[in-house]
Amino acid sequence: MNKIKIIIWREYITRVRNKTFIIMSILGPLLVTAFIVLMVWLPNSDKTEQKIMIVDESQAINISKLPDNELVKFTYPGIPLDEAKALFHKTDYTAILYISRDLEKDIHPILYCKKTPSFSTENYIKTQLEKKFFEWNLSANNINPQLLKSARKKVDLIATKLDEKGKEIETRNENAAIFGFACGLMIFFFVMMYGMQVMRSVMEEKTNRIIEVIVSSVKPFELMLGKIIGVAMVGITQFLIWVVLSSTLTTAASGILLAGVVKDVNMMQEQNEIVYKQGSNANFEEIKNPQNKLEAITVVKDFFSLNVTEIIVCFFIYFLGGYLLYSALFAAIGSAVDAEADTQQFMLPVMLPLMSGYMMAIGIAQDPETSVAFWGSIIPFTSPIVMMVRLPFGVPAWQIWVSVTLLIMGFIFTTWLAGRIYRTGILMYGKKITWKELGKWLSYKN
Amino acid sequence: MKSILSVEQVSKNYSGHVALSDVSLEIPEGSVFGLLGPNGAGKTSLIRIINQITAPDSGNVYLKGEKLIPQHSELIGYLPEERGLYRKMKVGEQCIYLAQLKGISKKDAVSKLNYWFEKFEMKSWWNKKVEELSKGMQQKVQFIVTVLHEPQLLILDEPFSGFDPINANQIKNEILDLKNKGTTIIFSTHNMGSVEELCDNIALINKSKKILDGSVKEIRKQFKTNVFTIGFHGNMLAFTNALWTGAELLDHKSEDNNTHIAKVKLLNNNKANNLLSAVMPVAEVFSFNEIIPSMNDIFIQSVQSENPSIIGTQSMFTE
Questions:
Q1: Could you tell me if A214 lies within 8 Å of chain B, comparing CB atoms?
Q2: Tell me: the pLDDT tens digits for B20-65?
Q3: What ipTM was reported for this prediction?
Q4: How far apart are the C-alpha atoms of B22 and B11, rounded to whole Å?
Q5: Which of B48, B70, B86 lies closest to A219 in CB terms?
Q6: A204 Cβ under 8 Å from any chain B Cβ
Q7: Which residues on chain A are in Cβ contact (under 8 Å) with B142?
Q8: What is the pTM of this model?
């Protein structure tokens, strides 16, 4: 046992001190955060005010006017288009919004601009115009737009699982699906990445020709276990660094860079909401201080109804179980070959169940109660991924217990199997190994 | 003399191929024991069994009277023929790691390593990565790692391969030094010269069986063929006649008409003195030596007698 600890420490420290590890651990979260920041920040970074001159030949807009927002201000000079175009570059107007005479035939207003406007500006103008035309059409047909808007209600369907004992659990399908899929995906990538690391670690002794010295001091099984656990610890360390760094960076980034932007985006969305519901007679007071926060609250409530403790505990169990199961197989492959190129023929059958777990996950996220979902979450080769996808939708306790038990039995089995292949494979050089040969090794006496 | 290692009727098969067949050995404590044999004879298989890398199919191995257990690996130092080090790891750190696997604490390992590194003038290599060292330097590190934990039994498989003559000599002296300190050494090699120089006892393995066993002196005596070289001044013909039925002239070399070196085989239980008495009246003897076969000759002869198809060359004037 003591020797395994020594091996674990060596495997851990040599990898964690490696430049590549340090760079990846820091670079990973940096890149992800930078990506998110850019995605959110860039579209909204256009802080330039848009001063838009409206040339409305239909007169519909001139009469009822479009609402301004923080960045977009409309003016109605009442001049014809030719004059507006001639004046344009001599004024500080940023754009001309041209609406032609015949709205019924021509609903392609043109926005003449000096510089390409931002997406949010275009979107805002488009949305306001759509609202206007909608109201205009309703009025033209003697339908009261106010009435129509108040009659339209957004439906929020709440799927609630009712079990035999009468317990009710709300299930929020979209959020649950995303969350579950993300967990499953993480496990998939982790198992693959670190499984490969175990394989390379096992090949290290063979390629360095040090294996005989090592196995004269420790048993091959102890060496294999030490490597699997050592690499697992490297993976967990990297995972923790990523989680801590990512959350720190994104919090800092949203605090510093995005605070204003996020607030603006939220406000704009809520303003749109209100304008949509109330039409052009929107209460401007309400727009300034939106109290309609239904969406935000729902999301938070969703998350907590997902039984977070259960999910986190299961995540760690499946994370570890899946890793142990597959890394044992990767260790076996690594021990059987002399060079990385030879690993290909053995990798495929090992990767296949892992990949199919991932494929299943995509379907299960949309439909979590199929028989494929059930069996996928029970069979230990696919359960680490599939069960994680199912969990946020609620899984009966007995299924979780069966799945975890089978997973534990699974990794004990693959470790035993790998042990038998490992102890023969590491001392074998030069022979081209076939599946038949591997089978023979299973039966060799200790 | 007490045996530190007893191998009792050990057999080992590898999927149809017989590696060892009922091999028994006694290794006396404190001796240097040569384990010899052609390639593929089974030496490495036996060594791996002693090191508990593999287990015998039948038979037993006893270290200091006890059946082999995992803890015994801490009493054994093993330098395999296929030897390497983690290339990307630093020398000092790696030596400590390997020493710890042999049961030495980190603190002890560091102080012992300091001693050896100083002795071999390797102190500047401590923080270097193994891949930065030359092959010979790596082999030195390898040797230190093998002896660091002061094992009672040292198993060296081709220890001199990879060393230049100066370093090989240094290693040879270390081996003798260790022997003087009471370490038992099992020595597997094809370099017969070193066997004669270093070994007290040998065993010769061929095709999975032990075919020869005993002290080097005894075995060489065993293979004695009662052949003598006589250097003399005189007449070759007269010399030959003088031999009569007591001895057979096998060969001779003549430097000139009067100076010859003859190779003579004694017959009919005649002794050296009889030979001398016979030739002295007709020749002025200036040198007289018994040819005792070298280990090289014994090796070839023994293996050849088992495999008559192998053609070897009998050396003419070897001593």
A1: yes
A2: 999 999 999 999 999 998 888 899 999 999 999 988 999 999 999 9
A3: 0.81
A4: 5
A5: B70
A6: yes
A7: 213
A8: 0.75
